[in-house]
């Protein structure tokens, strides 16, 4: 039995390439992305570039104003502090609900994070980091909590780009997440809450 693979369109391929560059910090915040330059660089037509940029605008990674090139969204430290102000009570609810329970999907994301080679693009760390936290929130079983958390995804991903300077040794980031999952999976509600609060209390490499 064979399982057919869906071909990747040029639009999706370009969106993936640009997303990786943004989330690895290769394209800094506020950097303009002129369509013609991208068309020449990647050897695709401008309509393809336009559609790929629209995908990233929809995801919240880029912003676009009328008659101007798309730009990478700039998230300030003040923005990120406010983001954590909102995330803390959401993840506190998660901690109380999941205390004493292992979440298989979160453990799997941690395993993938730990298996990444040292020279893997930072965007892959961002993806597994997001997958781990999202798995915990989904495991709570509250559609409204999940929607609220998902609405913060773009800013969270852009914030995680900054952490590449905070964690030059990626094993430290992996170890912190292992400790977090152990505290949630094996601890009391209060222990899980303290672990989540400590995990979210970090700087942004400013």
Automatic annotation (TrEMBL):
PROSITE patterns xrefs: HTH_GNTR
Keywords: DNA-binding, Transcription, Transcription regulation
Signal peptide (residue range): none
CDD domains to which the protein is assigned, alphabetical: WHTH_GntR
The HTH gntR-type domain, residue ranges: 8-75
SUPFAM superfamilies, per the entry: GntR ligand-binding domain-like, Winged helix' DNA-binding domain
Coiled-coil ranges per UniProt: none
Keyword presence, DNA-binding: yes
Entry-linked InterPro entries: GntR_C, TF_FadR/GntR_C, Tscrpt_reg_HTH_GntR, WH-like_DNA-bd_sf, WH_DNA-bd_sf
Protein's name according to its UniProt entry: GntR family transcriptional regulator
Lineage, opening ranks: Bacteria, Bacillati, Actinomycetota, Actinomycetes, Streptosporangiales
């Amino acid at each position: 039995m064979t399982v057919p693979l869906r071909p990747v369109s040029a639009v999706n391929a370009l969106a993936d390439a640009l997303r990786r560059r943004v989330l690895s910090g290769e394209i800094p915040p506020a950097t303009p992305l002129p369509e013609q330059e991208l068309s020449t660089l990647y050897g695709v037509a401008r309509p393809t570039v336009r559609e790929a940029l629209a995908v990233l605008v929809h995801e919240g990674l880029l912003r676009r104003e009328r008659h101007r090139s798309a730009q990478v969204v700039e998230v300030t430290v003040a923005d990120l502090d406010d983001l954590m102000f909102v995330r803390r009570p959401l993840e506190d609810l998660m901690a109380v609900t999941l205390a004493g329970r292992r979440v298989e999907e979160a453990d799997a994301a941690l395993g993938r994070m730990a298996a990444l080679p040292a020279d893997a693009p930072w965007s892959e760390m961002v993806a597994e980091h997001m997958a781990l936290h999202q798995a915990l929130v989904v495991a709570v079983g509250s559609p409204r909590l999940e929607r609220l958390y998902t609405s913060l995804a773009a800013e969270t991903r852009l914030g995680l780009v900054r952490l590449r300077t905070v964690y030059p040794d990626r094993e430290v980031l992996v170890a912190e997440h292992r400790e977090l999952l152990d505290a949630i999976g094996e601890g009391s509600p209060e222990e899980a809450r303290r672990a989540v609060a400590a995990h979210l209390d970090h700087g942004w490499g400013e």
